[in-house]
Amino acid sequence: MRQVIAQLEASKIREIANAGLGRKDVLAFWFGESDEVTPEVIRRAAIESLASGETFYSQNCGLPELREALAQYMGDSHPTAGVNAERIVVTSGGVSALMLAVQALVDAGDEVVIVTPVWPNLVAQPAIMGAQVRCVPLQPHGGAWQLDMPALLAAITPRTRLLIVNAPNNPTGWTLTCEEQQQILAHCRSTGTWLLADEVYEKLYYEPTPHGCAPSFLDVAEPENRLLVAHSFSKSFLMTGWRLGWLVLPASLVDAMGKLIEFNTSCASVFTQRAALAALAYRKEITPRIVAHFMHCRDTLVPLLSQVPGVQVAPARGGMYAFFRIDGFDDSMDVAKRLVAEAGLGLAPGEAFGVEGRGWLRWCFASKDASRLAEGVRRLSKWLEHNRPQ
Amino acid sequence: MRQVIAQLEASKIREIANAGLGRKDVLAFWFGESDEVTPEVIRRAAIESLASGETFYSQNCGLPELREALAQYMGDSHPTAGVNAERIVVTSGGVSALMLAVQALVDAGDEVVIVTPVWPNLVAQPAIMGAQVRCVPLQPHGGAWQLDMPALLAAITPRTRLLIVNAPNNPTGWTLTCEEQQQILAHCRSTGTWLLADEVYEKLYYEPTPHGCAPSFLDVAEPENRLLVAHSFSKSFLMTGWRLGWLVLPASLVDAMGKLIEFNTSCASVFTQRAALAALAYRKEITPRIVAHFMHCRDTLVPLLSQVPGVQVAPARGGMYAFFRIDGFDDSMDVAKRLVAEAGLGLAPGEAFGVEGRGWLRWCFASKDASRLAEGVRRLSKWLEHNRPQ
Questions:
Q1: Is residue B238 located within the same domain as residue B342?
Q2: Which residues 122-161 in chain A show a CB within 8 A of chain B?
Q3: What is the pLDDT of residues A334-378, one digit of tens each?
Q4: Does A50 lie at the interface with B, CB-CB under 8 angstroms?
Q5: Which pTM value belongs to this model?
Q6: Pair B116, B264 in one domain
């Protein structure tokens, strides 16, 4: 086995979850997924496709009608971005979209800059390709995390092949402003650096906006800029287990991306793409309901959490996580394990997302029944009463 | 974009197919897929899973019950191989299984040896990882292709990180004997070379055997040998469009492979895995029928083809292709394009599979209605009558 593969860090979230598997008394908030089943109208489209016998290979870049529907969907949210179907490829999940982008751009030895803490997959993917990864940490201010823009811009030099940014951010809920995106993009233009934006949480955004989503690099970029944006059906349509996503990319890269899809996964299942078409057709019923419910979840959890003595937490502007710390508990891996074992509460340890996350805990608030969140806080409070550091 | 990605060859099969798209008068045999829908019992299992709401993430390495069922399935065919569930990971298609194996083993600059002509994805995958690829050509003897064993063994040195072999072979139908496998494996042991065997056609084998499949490297290897075997549900269960496969690998590699799956595709859909479980449960009804039918297809096509003046062809021992040449037609890309345009016959050009394939044509004989094959030969004969080289 390659040394770089042997050294890839195993998921610390899985490590905690495995400790609680099979225990029905554990309230689990560790994974980044809602506990609500995919809407019936979406499942029905896949069922009908299967019943009608759509079990053959499809186009590498996705069904033409799905690429067209995605272009319209992106156009609704980003009317100035000029996204047409020729700039979209359908992928086997958001994670596959990101991996394909990295394969297209990163040679072994290339330098890649990543804003952390972040979903660990973003750091692992360039490492798999043999890249040198450099992390630029967000800074916590109270419970909220902020970008150190001078540090980021200083890290991106003409030697930087690729910048990877995930905003709205998993795990911190940090988002970029439009002005910050302009500044980053201008700097990347000057250094010739490609930009890979993981914007899968753009619809899960809780601030007032004209188009119902977080600021996107697409809003400030030109179609032929060195920008790729990764998306997923997982979050906005409750479709985590379906494994379907897409990339928005310069049209000049689409042929190459079609080849990479052929050599990685060949294509997405037609019946899954039919489900995606239904999701997009019913998007005005589905996504606003999900976002309103997640906001209710956030606004249930965060005030309760912030009342717990010693807890530092801020309401996330986007995403589906509360990222928080508890005074006196600096080893969040240990805390997460103890919470599973002693309190029946399943959270993700902050160091799963980078060294900066040490001392923090991630709580996925996407829960069909918001009362589970209140019960979780009750368990945390009770456990803390008996386990305060002296 | 990386230079190595820009230089990846676009599919020559797609180039031909695109020339015939939208033409209902073309009999298409260009892709490696049957035109028969997935059996109903398999589709029903996925439909029931979707209806019951199985739309969440699953284990990186696959559902434990599917890994268990695959271990039993592999044990039926390879009783001495000692394959247990801990040596199996479920992947998003056979192509993903192969790509994951290459990611695990091949650093940029490593030397990889591949037996060609072969499915082009096998050559592209190590190139994506930055490897140096060295091809060892099979040799045509009449219509049948044979391995030049001394040339292969001479090509594999201690500098060779990985050997990739696809047998039964796409496109030639060439298969390895058990003795050849022993010889290759022993040589790879002596040079420390890993072996990646693409055995997705093992059940589509038309010679009498005790266990109903082609010879496999698993039959001659020890569990901890440097051997990975890639498999797929596509061919033996008519499930091309589902994108589900698996790897058999040393147990010591499974944890690393789970991480790579997380970073590439995360997991396969649960409903697709339920379909796979149904496929395995009904394997004794499904696969023998498919194999008998494909053999009937082969034995319809090959005798008719061999009666066409100037055609060199031999019955494939395995796989689902007739690979043949026509005297006087050395530019098979040109012939394939003309056959689409002038004869309404869609075949794959041999050079899609490597330079050795130039002058050859691949005909996928997996056709639900075998009379389509006879009609195809009639079109070829008629076209040749008017287009013989002078």
A1: no
A2: 124-125, 128-130
A3: 999 999 999 999 999 999 999 999 999 999 999 999 999 999 999
A4: yes
A5: 0.97
A6: yes
